[in-house]
Structures are given as C-alpha cells and as structure tokens.
Amino acid sequence: MPKPLDAIDRKILSALTADGRISNNQLAEQVGLSPAPCWQRMRRLEKDGFIQAYAAILDQEKLGLAETALVDVGLDRHDDATVDGFGQAMAAMPEVLEVFLTTGEYDYFIKVAVDGTRGYEAFLRRLYRVPGVRNTRSSFALRCLKRASSVTP
To answer: 4-37 burial string, b = 16+ CB within 10 Å, else e?
Structure first.
C-alpha cells in the first residue's frame, strides 16, 4: 500500500506536472528540501505509481497534424472480441491520441490529430473498417484553451 501523500509530495507532483525536466536541485529548492531527500521522495512517488511516466508534449501543427477531431464511436456489439479488437485497432492508429470508454449514447470518445478534412476522411475510412464500429459523431476542436496531463491534488 502506498504511503499517503503529504504536502511536500503534492508540491513535487505539481512541480513535475509543470516541468517534467526540472533538475533535482531546482525541484528540491522549489519544494523546500535538500537534494537527497527530494530525490528519494521522487523515486518513491515513481515506485508507488503516482508518477506513471515522463513525456514530451509535441506541437501537432508543426508535425503537419494541425486539426484535432473529437470523435464519439458506437459499437454494434459489446462482446469481448469486438471490444478487444477495437482497443487494439485504436492503439495501432498513430493519429489516435486518446481513447476513453464512456457512458451514454456512444461507447468511446476518441481524440485524433489529423491533417485537415482530407486527413480526417482517410482516418474515418480506416475507422469504419474496424469490426464492430456502428456509427460515429465528430467535432473539430477550434482551439485548445487548457491542456493538462494531470491534476495535482
């Protein structure tokens, strides 16, 4: 069982969420610890699963994928083979950024980075070839007002 988070752990998580490349010395100074205890706490937070990974946030526009499509997907059946196959297909599509199993009218919510409407059309053609996909509803994001990888408690 992981040790409960204290105020310093929360400060460490908040600082790492803002800048995952912060040096241990800078992090220690920011949270009011010396470097060695700060490093130990950070490693414990990693080991206990509070920190799952470190990642770079890429500029999709500079990569030629300037549009973000938000897609609701409904499946025509919900047996294990269909659900597993859908998950594997989404994992294999590079333009799919995130996939959420949802409640309500649709089964999944997908965030996709594409190169305009032609890129989205090509994605949709591949999506509709995935066994079990019944219908979709799409929207294009006009602008991102907030982007966060996590919420620090």
So the answer is: eeeeebebbbebbeeeeeeeeeebbebbebeeee
> pLDDT of 47-101, one tens digit each?
999 999 998 888 899 999 999 999 999 999 999 999 999 999 999 999 999 999 9
For 67-141, CATH gives: 3.30.70.920
CB count, 10 Å around CB of 151? Answer: 8
Which residue from 87, 83, 84 is spatially nearest to 75, judged by alpha carbons? 83
Contact 31, 100 (CB under 8 A): no
Q: What integer is the mean pLDDT of 1-13?
A: 92
CATH classification code of 7-47: 1.10.10.10
pTM listed for this prediction: 0.83
Half-sphere exposure of 29 (CA within 13 A, CB side): 5
User: Do the Cβ atoms of 119 and 65 come closer than 8 Å?
Assistant: yes
Q: What is the domain partition of the chain in residue ranges?
A: 7-47, 67-141
